[in-house]
UniProtKB/TrEMBL annotation:
Signal peptide: none annotated. GO terms for biological process: coumarin biosynthetic process; gibberellin metabolic process; response to molecule of fungal origin. It catalyses: gibberellin A1 + 2-oxoglutarate + O2 = gibberellin A8 + succinate + CO2. Keywords: Dioxygenase, Iron, Metal-binding, Oxidoreductase. Transmembrane segments: none annotated. One of its GO terms (molecular function) is metal ion binding. Its EC number is 1.14.11.13. It comes from Olea europaea subsp. europaea. PROSITE patterns: FE2OG_OXY. InterPro entries: DIOX_N, IPNS-like_FE2OG_OXY, IPNS-like_sf, Iron_ascorbate_oxido_reductase, Oxoglu/Fe-dep_dioxygenase_dom. This is gibberellin 2beta-dioxygenase. Residues 191-293 form the Fe2OG dioxygenase domain.
């Protein structure tokens, strides 16, 4: 059997060998992932109406965004202002980057040493992600020394990050307005040092269709902008207690609500669990932008009575990271419930 780049097969085999729950875990994974999940088309929202001179059209677009954020936690946007040519360039640069030898990606200081692969905290197979990624803070994207031999990546990364940042703040502002807050609030609390661009690669998984490309999770941010692979599906989300597969749309970007927005909106908007399914034959690429506040920003519910304790982004990150290190999985918002 051919080893993958990175050595995911070796890492998985080590976890499998030391896991005391092999049979139970494998059984749970099968029943979870092959539950007859159907393919869905997320709510599709045309953002050109946000700039319409017709007040009714603008209001309708805002209502669609708010409704999708409440009922799905996910939606798609078209006419979003990010050129498809730029996204195609980003994919081409990603392919070159991830095709580099594992030793180069892991040891040469690429992109602020932000390379990640597999799941270092996994103690059993169902906690393991068959994927690799670069998770880069916005503050590092412009630094030439981060790119090594991949000099053509820098300009594309900078343009892509800037465009996704602008779009994320526009959508966050719309959702804030719907809650009765000023659109400009995110300009005041969001910090480039905590916002990230993540380049994802899901290599073919030759050993089992039972593995995750990315384990089930929610995002620990305000919202996420995702350009998913238009050729290979894999994204699934939890809807009405069932996993549903998201049908790729080459013209659309996927937007999802994060934990912080759910807490801030007092559960008006939903941070929904999602995952990526491994593919046995095809590789998959995606780019995600995470809109985050500064570490000391206070996250409190905008409506009373609040369901959540008041906390800072730093406290939230520290707690979720501690839980993952301790138990292998993220607990998230339930840790901060008042009741």
């Amino acid at each position: 059997m051919v080893e993958s780049n990175p050595p995911l097969l070796h890492e998985y085999s080590q976890i499998l060998r030391h896991s005391k729950q092999d049979c139970a875990v494998q059984s749970n994974i099968v029943s979870d992932k092959y539950d007859g999940s159907s393919e869905c088309e997320l709510p599709l929202i045309d953002l050109r109406y946000l700039k319409s001179e017709n007040e009714e059209e603008r209001a309708c677009c805002i209502e669609e965004i708010a409704r999708a954020s409440s009922q799905w936690g996910f939606f798609q946007v078209v006419n979003h202002g990010i050129s498809l040519q730029l996204l195609d360039k980003m994919r081409s640069e990603q392919i070159k980057l991830f095709n580099a030898p594992f030793e180069n990606k892991a040891s040469c200081g690429l992109l602020n040493n932000s390379y990640r692969w597999g799941t270092p905290t996994a103690t059993c197979p169902h906690q393991f992600s068959w994927s690799e990624a670069f998770h880069i803070p916005l503050t590092k994207i412009s630094e030439e020394e981060c790119y090594g031999q991949f000099t053509s990546l820098r300009e594309v990364m900078m343009e892509c990050a800037s465009a996704m940042q602008e779009l994320s703040k526009l959508l966050a502002g719309v959702l804030l307005t719907n809650l009765g807050h000023r659109m400009e609030l995110f300009d005041e609390i969001c910090d480039e040092s905590t916002c990230f661009l993540r380049l994802n690669h899901y290599p073919p998984c030759p050993i089992s269709l039972e593995l995750f490309g990315l384990v089930p999770h929610t995002d620990s941010d305000f919202l996420t902008i995702l350009h998913q692979d238009e050729h290979v599906s894999g994204l699934q989300l939890m809807k009405d207690g069932k996993w549903v597969s998201v049908k790729p749309n080459k013209d659309a970007l996927v937007v999802n609500i994060g934990d912080l927005f759910q807490a801030w909106s007092n559960d008006v908007y939903k941070s929904v669990e999602h995952k990526v399914i491994a593919n046995s034959r095809k590789e998959r690429f995606s780019v995600a932008y995470f809109l985050c506040p500064s570490y000391d920003s206070i996250i409190g519910s905008c409506k009373q009575p609040s369901r959540y304790k008041t906390f800072t982004f730093r406290e939230y990150r520290n707690k979720t990271q501690h839980d993952v290190k301790l138990t292998g999985h993220k607990v998230g918002l339930p840790r901060f419930l008042l009741d």
